[in-house]
Design goal:
The protein is of the alpha/beta class and 187 residues long. It has eight helices and eight strands.
Length: 187
């Protein structure tokens, strides 16, 4: 498969490396020239801008976001709306709040663009060797991206959690349980 990756830091960069090792083509964009250059040396096709990234992908496009939640995600989504077309898929793999994911889903849906919210678990090691994905959004869009999720996940490590917001909500619950357990162990 071919996909776009916006954000080539610890998680996005590691997932890109894993995808390329498994035979997928990745077109990447990062604000960091250093991250972009390092991955370009490993086979990633670099894009100087988000618009160029979109232009290098064939529709229907699959574009992952691994960028900070909040304003950065909102800004990138707003920019993507200018360039994407009907049937394209945006996968927000960051830690966005599930209510924001529902809103983004509705905004993209008006443009006939699919939006999946994807809670990603496993940290840097998981991104490199097999993560876990909890995905919310339309089943049709999930089915299109599922082969990539399966390749990048540990066995049985991907789940269509339900409608828009369900992926990031599942990750919220996951984190609450995990951090609660760590605090209890620490005490």
């Amino acid at each position: 498969m071919i996909c776009g990756m916006i954000g080539l830091g610890r998680i996005g960069g590691s997932l890109s490396r894993q995808a390329m090792e498994k035979g997928h083509q990745v077109v990447g964009y990062s604000k960091s020239d250093e991250e972009l250059s390092a991955l370009a040396n490993e086979g990633l096709e670099p894009a100087e801008t988000i618009q160029v990234l979109v232009e290098k992908l064939v529709s229907p496009r699959i574009i992952f976001l691994y960028i900070p939640h909040g304003d950065p995600t909102m800004e990138v989504c707003n920019e993507l709306k200018r360039f994407l077309r009907s049937g394209d898929i945006v996968v927000d793999g960051g830690n966005s709040h599930w209510k924001q994911s529902v809103t983004r889903y509705e905004e993209f849906k008006q443009l006939k663009i699919h939006f999946l919210d994807c809670g990603t678990s496993g940290g840097i090691e998981g991104a490199r060797k097999g993560a876990c994905f909890m995905v919310g959004g339309d089943a049709v869009a999930y089915a299109r991206v599922e082969p990539l999720f399966k390749d990048l996940a540990v066995p049985e490590g991907n789940l269509h959690a339900g409608p828009a917001g369900a992926g990031h909500f599942s990750k919220l619950v996951h984190n609450a349980i995990e951090f609660g357990m760590l605090q209890a162990i620490g005490e």
